[in-house]
Design brief:
- The chain has one domain.
- About 80% of the residues lie in helices and about 0% in strands.
- The chain contains 4 helices and no strands.
- It has helices spanning about 1-20, 20-30, 30-45, 55-90.
Length: about 90
């Protein structure tokens, strides 16, 4: 999970500094669940019915992307650990 946080955080930091559209496309294409979660969470904190989103929405969007990616890594890690545990148990039985 920490590696996921670091990888996603570093990629978002690079995007934030250089504002490359290609990097944001890669981040959103390869992490669609994080983008959907961020899109769902933003209206809880900000009024998104305006023409332009509020200034504080962009940092919150980036933070939620990082947290969602870390959560995905955690869930996948737990699933792989459980699958490995079940395979070892069936082999020894």
């Amino acid at each position: 999970m920490l590696v996921g946080f670091f990888a996603k955080g570093t990629a978002l930091f690079i995007w934030h500094v250089f504002r490359t559209a290609t990097l944001m496309n890669v981040l959103t294409v390869y992490d669609p669940l994080g983008v959907r979660l961020a899109d769902a969470v933003l209206p809880l904190f900000f009024n998104m019915r305006r023409i332009a989103p509020p200034a504080g929405a962009f940092p919150v969007f980036e933070i939620v992307l990082v947290l969602a990616f870390g959560l995905q890594c955690l869930v996948l890690g737990l699933a792989f650990n459980e699958a490995r545990r079940l395979l070892v148990r069936t082999r020894t039985a």
